[in-house]
From TrEMBL:
Gene label: folD
GO cellular component terms given for this protein: cytosol
Functional summary from the UniProt entry: Catalyzes the oxidation of 5,10-methylenetetrahydrofolate to 5,10-methenyltetrahydrofolate and then the hydrolysis of 5,10-methenyltetrahydrofolate to 10-formyltetrahydrofolate.
Protein name stated in the entry: Bifunctional protein FolD
One function term, GO molecular function aspect: methenyltetrahydrofolate cyclohydrolase activity
Originating species: Paracoccus amoyensis
Repeat is among the record's keywords: no
Record domain Tetrahydrofolate dehydrogenase/cyclohydrolase NAD(P)-binding: where: 139-278
InterPro entries xref list: Aminoacid_DH-like_N_sf (IPR046346), NAD(P)-bd_dom_sf (IPR036291), THF_DH/CycHdrlase (IPR000672), THF_DH/CycHdrlase_cat_dom (IPR020630), THF_DH/CycHdrlase_CS (IPR020867), THF_DH/CycHdrlase_NAD-bd_dom (IPR020631)
Amino acid sequence: MTATLIDGKAFAANLRTRIATEVAGLKDQGIVPGLAVVLVGEDPASQVYVRSKGRMTREVGMNSYEHKLPADTPQDALLALIDQLNEDPAVNGILVQLPLPKHMDEALVINAIDPAKDVDGFNVLNVGLLATGQKAMVPCTPLGCLMMLRDHLGSLSGKRAVIIGRSNIVGKPMAQLLLRDSATVTIAHSRTDNLPELCRQADILVAAVGHPRMVQGDWIKPGATVIDVGINRTDDGLVGDVDFDAAKEIAGAITPVPGGVGPMTIACLLANTLTATARVYGLPDPE
Ligand code: NDP
């Protein structure tokens, strides 16, 4: 193996320790950050995510409020709960676990969350703030990727970045964050021509596709930094969107799956909850 392994698990543990210290400092001032997580239905993967979010929220000393609603909950009942959480001063962050059941309008529900409590950063106001370079709540997965990239590379200015995937939760906000750091950004997707050739130009390659091991070793520029966002369940267990065994011989640095981007996502959710709390009380944003 020639590539440096970017250890997201260790990075996330470190970030959570720093958050726990900040939370303890707030407690001395009588402030306890609170995160409300709303789960509608019984999707098994979502149940696992919600459980681990709750556990890690408590571990850093925050209050966790979990709301589990049946799959056939009317949309109005969910909107009423969001209103109640928006008004509740003990709740600083609200996360509605996606995907929602088919009878619900995801955009409408997400946009009902108070933007100041929108710790997922999916509310259209936060999307606009991020796109225009203003103070926003930033989606957790790309925020975690950015932290690891900055930590590994220092300045991203002038670097050529290629992001594979244009979803609202990963690809697009990742592009905004890299642009904000003055990288030269290209977003690729399923209609992109000659994807391997495009990827070979990237100093930073972010794969957020959802196809197991799609990115081949010879798609990677020697020495590039590769961030693998993909989480794919296969017969060999969890694998990313990058062929890790081939890529690690060519890349300069790479995130593993599991143990890369995944743990950073939850740590960034806690970081966003801390930031949301600090802003309510007029305190500076935590580092
Ligand atoms: P989406 O399905 O919403 O988006 C996938 C994107 O990949 C689309 O833009 C699609 O293009 C593009 N794509 C699909 N096939 C190809 C192809 N053959 N070549 C190029 N581009 C292609 O997925 P998400 O963004 O939600 O998630 C992506 C992956 O990241 C998944 O594996 C998911 O599980 C994982 N994930 C991991 C997280 C973590 O915490 N580590 C958090 C969130 C997601 P088009 O738009 O043209 O259809």
